[in-house]
Amino acid sequence: MILFDGECPMCRAYTQAFVKTGMLDAGGRAAYQTDMNVCPLIDKQRAVNEIALVNLENGEVTYGVASIFKILGNAWPLFAGLFSCNPFLWVMRKVYAFISYNRRVIIPASESGNSYNYQPTFKLHYRIAYLLFTWFCTGCILTVYVHLLTPAIPLGNAYREYIICGGQIIFQGIIITTFAKTKLWEYLGNMMTISFGGSLLLLLPLALHRWFVLTPLFFSLAFMAVAGLMFLEHIRRTKLLKIGWTMTITWAFYRAMLLVVILLLG
Questions:
Q1: Would you say 93 and 64 are in contact if contact means Cβ atoms under 8 Å apart?
Q2: How far apart are CA 246 and CA 254, in angstroms?
Q3: Where are the alpha helices (DSSP H) in the chain?
Q4: Kind of pairing between the strands at 29-31 and 52-54
Q5: Any long-range contacts for 73-78 (C-beta under 8 Å, 24+ apart)?
Q6: What is the dihedral sign for C-alpha 209, 215, 220, 226?
Q7: How far apart are CA 248 and CA 229, in angstroms?
Q8: Is the peptide bond before 151 cis (omega within 30 degrees of 0)?
């Protein structure tokens, strides 16, 4: 039986996929919020941080990427050697930890998600790594996309979008420390997920540009539509964080202020 985070949509999805593909029995998955006591040998805090796979016959427990590779290796014996290769395991453990320790800011839990006795451990270096990753990817996509907005939006230097994105992290970080310092890293993680998600949506009009001749107006409208969705998602997530409207107002103010500056300087 694999014990997953019942408040994590990603965890629900991939463990359900294990069941649907026959890698696990129909009763081979359970949320740790309800079935943590299935085995007395489980390290409960570790099971919250790293998905636990329990052998119900002998009580053996594996965690994290080892649990996933045990399931995949059993289903695909051809890859068993790869799954036991130490360099590959080291890399995948880091990838798994990067996602697992940021999963609640990638897709936030419901309002009742923090009521369970055990919560994912916060690790600052993984959160900083996530902020840097999303900052770089967002800046990279926007740097390409802004060329489709000209002449409506003047082109800047090669680093403008990276500076704007990084500046918002600093700006919003300063604001939230004035009234909700304990939620600084949680908020910044959510905010950068919104930015990263918005940039991924812009890949669709970028793809259309390769196949069709479209006007800057189309790409400007697409950008505005994505910005509107980001605004609504920001409202939803700040409600879950219970930090009021301040961060949404400053988030919108920062973007509007920079747009005015760019237009004036252009």
A1: yes
A2: 12
A3: 9-20, 32-35, 44-49, 65-75, 80-83, 86-100, 103-106, 124-145, 160-177, 184-201, 203-211, 216-241, 246-265
A4: unpaired
A5: 74/23, 75/21, 75/22, 75/23
A6: negative
A7: 13
A8: yes
Q: Could you tell me the two tokens for 175? A: 């604001």
The confidence score (pLDDT) of residue 237 equals: 97
Residues 87-124 pLDDT 10s: 999 999 999 999 999 999 999 987 666 667 889 999 99
Q: Residues near 232 by Cβ (< 8 Å), separated by ≥ 6?
A: none
At which residue do the structure tokens 């050697």 appear? 81
Cα–Cα distances in Å, from 185 out to 13, 177, 189, 248, 254? 26, 10, 6, 16, 19
Against a cut of 0.90, is the pTM above it?
yes
CB–CB of 47/32 below 8 Å? yes
In this predicted model, what pLDDT tens digit does every residue of 178-224 receive, in sequence order?
A: 999 999 999 999 999 999 999 999 999 999 999 998 999 999 999 99
Tell me the CA end-to-end span of the chain in Å, nearest whole number.
Answer: 60
Residue 264: phi and psi, rounded to 5, are -70, -40
**Residues 24, 118, 115: CA angle, nearest 5 degrees:** 105
Task: Calculate the CA dihedral of residues 147, 148, 150, 153 and round it to 10 degrees.
Answer: -90
Closest by CA to 241, choosing from 132, 110, 99, 102, is: 110
